[in-house]
Amino acid sequence: MIIQLNGKSADIPEEIVTLQDLLVWYGLKDRIVIAELNREIIDKENYQSTTLVNRDILELIHFVGGG
């Protein structure tokens, strides 16, 4: 499946079905992440039930600590 992720085309394996699957695949499951799917903010409690389809537009924002 091909989606637009943070402004770039990304080829996602077919076993990635939900937003939560994608976060696990990218190693972001235990981080604070804001997700916008097709211009709609998705609540964290809905990540597991939010399915991804070909040509979705996804923006992921995660926070990086530093000092």
Instruction: Compute the number of structural domains.
Output: 1
Broad shape: globular
Broad CATH class: Alpha Beta
**How does the major sheet shape up?**
5 strands, mixed
The CATH superfamily title = Beta-grasp domain
Unreliable parts: none
Give the termini distance in whole angstroms: 38 Å
Radius of gyration: 12 Å
Can you give keywords for this protein?
5 strands; Ubiquitin-like (UB roll); 67 residues; mainly beta
Describe this structure in words.
It holds the Pfam family ThiS. The structure is a single chain. Helices cover 10% and strands 33% of the residues. With 67 residues, the chain is mostly beta strands. The model has no long low-confidence stretch (mean pLDDT 94).
